[in-house]
Predict the 3D structure of the following.
Amino acid sequence: MTAPASPSKQLYHAWVEQRIEDFKDSISRDELLEFADEAVQELYSDPDGQYALTEIVLRDAVDMLLFRRLGLPSYRQWLKLCQIDTSDRPPEGTAPAATSGAKFA
C-alpha cells in the first residue's frame, strides 16, 4: 500500500492538470489530434512503451507530451516557485481537479 500524496503534491498535480486542460481547450480539435498522433508515435518508438492503446493510455501520453511542450516545472521546481513571491509563482488556490492518472515528475 502506498502512502497518500502530500497536500502540496496534490496541489501540484491539480495545477499541472489545469494548465494542460486549459491548453487543450485553447487549441482546435485538429491540433489536439496532431498531438495524439505524435504521442502514439512516441509510445510505439519507446522499447518499454505501452502497445495496447486505450483511451486512458492515449490521454496520459498526450498529457505528458503537452507537459513537456508547455515547459511545466517539475514538482520540486514548482515547490520552489511557490516559496518565491514573483510573477512566476503559480496561482494560489488552485482548485483540485479530477485526477487523470497521469504521473508528472
